Batch of 3 targets.
Target 1
Amino acid sequence: MQQTQLSSQAWLEQCHSNGAQLGLKELLYYKPKANLLSLKPKARIKSAQAGQYLAPHKGRGMEFAEVRQYQYGDDIRAIDWRVTARTGEAHTKLYQEEKERPVFVFTDLSNSMLFGSQLLLKSVQAAHLSALVAWSACQRGDRLGGIVFNEHGHHELKPIARDKGVLALCHQLCDIHQQALHNREHITQQHVAQSRFADNLKRLTHLAKPGSLIYVISDFTNLNDASFKQLERLARHCELIGCQISDPFEHQLPAYREAIMVEAGDNAWTLPLMDKQFRAKFAKQSAEAFANRLSRLKRAGMTMQSFSAATPLESQLMR
């Protein structure tokens, strides 16, 4: 059965998930799906010292780069005889040498991520994406490290190769997520979440060597000026891929016959979902807020991707 034909409940059963809790089995589910994600560099390599997929120099390797006229000292085994015959002048093939580079996953499991109106909590989708990045890195032969955090704590993972690195990350995702669910009512102040994000970015700056590939997975709602400065600092020497996780409820409120009460910690709001104008105003303000946030994250040096918590990850990546 194709993914598009699966109902939400059938997919959750296939993935070994209930959408709210997080278990190791559902993260292992992504191991055979590693090909869904390409970790090849999308930006110019920023360090000649660090290992990377495509080294900045030309040489013998796995990835074809270009053909140019033969120069004294070139390896005669690399001569392109077809081009030579066509042009009447000797030409040689150049290659970009493939190397491994460390891959880091920075996963935000703070309180704002513990929300979901349809298929999964945003935090669970973030963990699924983190696992997919990890398995993709493992398949490429790259060492994997990262930071997993919530408002209550964090865990750093130094780069480790093969399945051992992936499993270490997966175990931490499960543990930190369970801690976040258990303690989500205890901390509600936004400035605490902001400082946690910035503090953990600072830790990542010390952990990630120049030339690393870094996936930052979050809803990015708890960023302050310090966070953006840390992102800019990282982007100078590493390739940053930002993965924004959101829920449809954050973009468009559903129509309902009466107002509903929403509570978050000590705060409570009444949402008049029966009011069409209110829903339209909310959608407009939400679109502006998302666009402004996306723009600032791009200015900080990140390549941004957006994911929904309402549909399976693989169906979004196969589009």
Target 2
Amino acid sequence: MDHSTLKRFSVSMEGQLLQKFDRLVSDKGYENRSEAVRDLVRDALIQHSWEKDEQVVAGSILLFYDHHQRNLLDEMTNIQHSMHDNIIATTHFHLDHSNCLELIIVKGKAKEIQQLSNKLTSLRGVQYGKFTVAPIEHI
């Protein structure tokens, strides 16, 4: 890495979040926070680069949510039905009385899959969402 191109910036976050981040930095073996932030930014940029892409991809959307959230299940179902051509399979797990985990296996144009993921993960009641993707050669 060419240190002459490095730019400094500051980041503000809650103390508890910073403690958790510092544990992550240590657990992953980073020498410092900057290395970890660079990796996180690179990963976000790679994921974002798919958003407008016409390339066909396969992947998964992982959702962790509280099924008691009003209208959430109806909204999730409506979104999934509106993009049913991109959904290969879904698996739903009941984790406890309130929390569910849903795994949605997807395939299609990267920009469409990204839109589906964004719609689902931004719903009120979805506590965590993760979109993973890999390019494939053919539909």
Target 3
Amino acid sequence: MTDVTRTKRGRPVHHWRRDVVELAALFTAVAVADGVANLIGHGPGGPALLVISAAVLAATAGFHIWWSRRHGHAPPVSDTGARPPSQGPQAGPSEPTTRTPETVPRASTLWRMRTTVKDEPGSLAVLCAGLAGSRVDILSLQTHPLADGTVDEFLLRAPADLAASELTRVVATAGGTDTWVERADAHDLVDVPTRVLGLAARTALDAAELPLALRQLLGRCTIHQQPAGPGDSRRGRVGEPVEGALEDTVLRLRAPEGGMITVERPYLPFTPTEFARARALVELDARLGPRLPRGEDVLTLPEGNEITVRRADARDLEAAKEMHERCSSRTLGLRYHGPVGDADRYLDHLLSPRYGRTLAVQTASGRVIGLGHLLWDGDETEVALLVEDAWQRRGIGGELLSRLMAMAAEAGCESVYAVTQASNTGMVAAMRGLELPLDYQIEEGTLVVTARLEPKPTTSATPDATPEEQHIGKGLARD
């Protein structure tokens, strides 16, 4: 075993070879010194020569010491082969030490909160310190400047045992006023610029997305659109500001095609920042003009006929009226629940992308034989179908209904309802074919069937993707 190995293993190393060599050198030096002393001491001038030699040796030693100090040479280190003594505590019985308890994960809750603080230096810092004192983590913060203060909107992660009332009390103690708190979910973790850009992209691709984009931008709200009347200009009512108006819990925006879009949110006042964002979306829609996503699906009926399902808008008005003329009075009565002669006047509203989405079914020759509508009715969503008599009982209604339900789920709707007559067994069968939870309400022969949906996250497929890029329903047989 080598000395290096023993040293690494902590054993002392005894250099006995070096000791023998040093003793031999010492004895040799003594013998040489004795011989020189005898030779010089018994000769003439011997003592003087010895004194001179001693002086030269002393001078040499002094010079060596001076040289070493001037050039910073380290003093020689004794190399005994032993491990240098440790500067730390020596090994021994371990003493009890204090350990920090491990952090135990605690259940938490996400909250959305708005509060008004004074527009003064340090006011926000006091509020944040108050939240930190209650172990509330601030995930995101938006500021909405006002004339006499600032509305701060927070996304918070708080301990699960912290109630909303306690959170409001903490904020009030820190100087917040007009505080509003509600539960949040994982969808709120998306930052505002990303969400706004996504809504702008959806609006740019499809004119029917504007009401949905406004609802998702502003939260739980009710949206109404009033068409331009006879005495209104293209930009809206005469005398009202072109840029719209903000009145506490109500927003009024100029509709791109004329008239007014009214947004109401009674539980929380709008801020000028929200008004500016909503107005920017409406202006984007107005600049792009009428548009529909491209793409259509060609399906094959069981008997071999090919039909095409596509999006429809006001440009299909004349084709829809021609379909009305081919429908029987009973079919129109089941669909519109009123006088058959008034059926045509509903089409302007139904085909407008401002009120919802419409799917059209047409034959290989281009004749429209069916329409399916998904209508935004305030906070609710209505679905309606009309299929020409000669094409009924072939699965067309079920195909339209399944596609409209998929659109509603992607738009975040929680439920969709259909209004029909109790004798309309075809509509009832189509709703039951969805295999969704259904609620039935019957009053004086009118049947309301409500289907509860689970909203689906928006996929990366864009509305103008080709049929090969989008998922196509398989309610009908294909080639």
